[in-house]
Write a structure and sequence with these properties.
- The structure holds two protein chains of two kinds.
- The relative contact order of chain A is 0.19.
- Chain A has one domain: Orthogonal Bundle (ABC transporter involved in vitamin B12 uptake, BtuC), CATH 1.10.3470.
- Chain A is mainly alpha-helical.
- Chain A has twelve helices and four strands.
- Chain B is α/β, with parallel strands linked by helices.
- Chain B has a single domain, classed as P-loop containing nucleotide triphosphate hydrolases (Rossmann fold), CATH 3.40.50.
- Chain B has a six-stranded mixed sheet, with helices on both faces. Chain B has a four-stranded antiparallel sheet with strand order 2-1-4-5, with helices on one face.
- The longest helix of chain B is centred in the last third of the chain and has 29 residues.
- The mean pLDDT of chain B is about 90.
- Classes of the chains: A mainly alpha, B alpha/beta.
- Chains A and B meet through helix 7 and helix 8 of A and helix 2 and helix 3 of B.
- The structure holds adenosine-5'-triphosphate and magnesium ion (MG).
Chain lengths: ~325, ~270
């Protein structure tokens, strides 16, 4: 049970990563791989500030803000200096590796006794439930700590998912969607495509850094290597989500992305439990994304196109 | 209203692909006039419209619109003054967004876009009313993705979007060229309706002599990046499609002459 709960919590935290990836890859059609660096940046900034006794909320918000700055940088490289989108992301991601090392001062920061957002959730949980260590849910005993964190993260992710959805219904948000859908049209309607891309990448990487910040607080450490391959994980969640909802409605796609991330983590947890070598995880994820990218075209080739037969004379 | 002064544009200069797309083009357009631009393929019609819209910044020359020097303005800034319909029906709308969302985007052309709701019930009602006036039965489908509509329907909606906030200048670049004749007629009728109702200053490019003669109050014919003929007033009123076709033939004949002349010169002097 604890295994499932921790996998779900991880899935929810990484759902923020998936939402960020959804924003750049799907809304903008922009293959932004800054994510690998910005998720670590969020973790690094938050962990460093926590060690320096900043309040957890403050440390988390600043971690998220740092990610937004990284996203802005990628956006500026791409729009103002006309550097290819993929390359802009690679440049910023590479530079962030050094930045992260400088922020942390070493390659790993453990968060042992520091008060974190998640330890605060735990204490809120214990006052609400009037319990101190264990919870009894339909016969399952669940650690209070795990349940409170899961609930707290769940509320946060649902809130952010809803906020993202509502944002996409605003004047600016619809302009952002149109920028990805048809830049020529939205430019002719007076929107600076460059500006929207910069803001969009800031929002995307802010979400991703927030995932990193929460991840560090949940795992109890920040590590300079933790971002490797994260874009592909996020993309895998987005793809699972799209398959789950099978619709182009925005509300469903956002929900699906969150569910996709949780499902993905659960599958990973089960596979690891069954003896999957953790070292193979990234290879399998990459293969999964590869297959889902080529599957639609492949299916079309295999399935003969059915043409309506001509009416008989 | 619109003043184009000595506009010159060369694409790919100093390469084998060099194209002199606009050569010293000057044009003055009064407020409320409806100018039709005709000309052979590659004569620079689209380039002229793109220069006005700001798709590129010209090599030299100036553009003044509504009393403002817009020559160096970026495209999105000019959009405050200009409404556009493109030749390709896919260019003017965002396919994955709903009809209502597309139109709502156009209701704020050139204005600040903040965090207010893009669509509220008042907005939806006024959108539905305007869409109903198209008589295409689209008013019940305003939440469908616009990409599911036919080219003609999309072009009609793009026209509605471009003219929603009366633009100082309306640019139409062969906006019926991709449509079947019946739909094209429908869109042309709508164009006429909107332009006359709102008295819009309009630049329209077409290859249809019928459209050229039946719409607008002035015809300009371009050739090789220059304005060859400019028909206004009485001359414009008397012109028939055959007359325009005759002028095209003249151009073609002169074109055929040119290589021969070049050859002769080469034989004599080289
Ligand atoms: N962005 C560009 N880059 C390079 N060359 C261009 C560009 N835009 C136009 N040209 C060239 O400029 C010339 C004029 O093109 P333009 O599109 O203005 O012609 P047009 O009169 O609109 O023709 P058509 O009737 O075929 O639409 C052509 O030779 C074209 O190849
Ligand atoms: Mg053209």
């Amino acid at each position: 049970m604890t295994l499932l709960i921790s996998a779900t919590t991880m899935g929810l935290i990484l759902a923020l990563l998936a939402l960020g990836v959804y924003l750049s890859f799907r809304i903008f059609n922009f293959p932004d791989i800054t994510a690998d660096g910005s998720i670590t940046l969020g973790a690094a900034v938050t962990a460093t500030l926590l060690v320096h006794h900043f309040s957890p909320v403050m440390a988390t918000v600043l971690g998220c803000g740092a990610g937004a700055l990284a996203g802005m940088t990628t956006g500026i490289l791409h729009t103002k200096f006309k550097i290819n989108g993929l390359l802009s992301g690679i440049l910023v991601m590479t530079a962030l590796y050094s930045v992260n090392l400088h922020v942390m001062g070493r390659s790993n920061i453990p968060l042992l006794s520091e008060s974190t957002l998640l330890s605060q959730m735990e204490s809120i949980g214990s006052t609400w439930f009037h319990l101190d260590s264990e919870l009894d849910i339909i016969g399952w005993t669940v650690g209070l700590r795990d349940a409170s964190m899961l609930l707290g993260i769940f509320v946060l992710v649902v809130f952010l998912g809803a906020a993202l959805y509502l944002f996409f219904q605003t004047n600016f948000g619809t302009a952002m969607r149109a920028t990805g859908d048809n830049p020529q049209m939205i430019r002719a309607l007076g929107v600076s495509v460059d500006f929207v891309i910069i803001v969009g990448l800031a929002v995307s990487n802010g979400l991703i850094a927030l995932a990193g910040s929460l991840l560090a607080q949940y795992q109890g450490f920040a590590d300079v290597q933790m971002g490797i391959g994260m874009v592909v994980w996020g993309l895998a969640s987005v793809i699972i989500g799209e398959a789950l909802v099978g619709s182009s409605r925005l509300s469903l796609l956002i929900t699906g992305t969150i569910m996709g991330s949780v499902l993905f983590r659960l599958l990973v947890a089960i596979a690891l439990r069954w003896g999957l070598n953790p070292n193979d995880l990234k290879f399998i994820t990459a293969t999964f994304v590869f297959i889902s990218l080529i599957a639609p075209a492949l299916l079309r080739k295999i399935k003969p196109v059915t043409t309506p037969s001509a009416p008989k004379a | 209203m619109l003043e184009i002064c000595n506009l010159t544009q060369t694409f790919h200069p100093n390469t084998p692909n060099e194209v002199l797309a606009l050569r010293d083009v000057s044009l003055r357009l009064e407020k409320g006039s409806f100018l039709i631009i005709i000309g052979t393929n590659g004569s620079g019609k689209s380039t002229l419209l793109n220069a006005v819209a700001g798709t590129f910044i010209p090599d030299s020359g100036g553009i003044t619109l509504a009393g403002q020097q817009i020559t160096r303005w970026p495209e999105h800034r000019r959009a405050k003054l200009i409404g556009r319909v493109f030749q390709n029906p896919f260019s003017g709308t965002a396919p994955n967004m709903s009809i209502a969302e597309n139109l709502a985007l156009a209701t704020r052309r050139g204005q600040r876009r903040g965090l207010g709701w893009a669509l509220n019930s008042t907005m939806r009602d006024s959108l539905r009313d305007r869409i109903r006036s198209l008589n295409m039965g689209l008013e019940n489908r305003i939440d469908n993705p616009i990409g599911t509509l036919s080219g003609g329907q999309r072009q009609a909606l793009t026209l509605l979007m471009a003219s929603w906030l009366k633009p100082d200048l309306l640019l139409l670049d062969e906006h019926t060229a991709a449509l079947d004749p019946k739909t094209a007629d429908q869109v042309i009728r709508l164009t006429h309706e909107i332009v006359t109702r709102d008295n819009l200053t309009t630049l329209m490019v077409t290859h249809s002599m019928q459209q050229a003669v039946h719409l607008g109050n002035r015809i300009v014919m371009m050739h090789r990046g220059q304005i060859l003929h400019d028909l206004q007033g009485g001359e414009r009123r008397r012109v028939r499609p055959e007359d325009l076709l005759k002028r095209f033939d003249e151009v073609r004949r002169r074109e055929q002459l040119d290589p021969n002349v070049a050859e002769m010169l080469q034989r004599n002097y080289v």
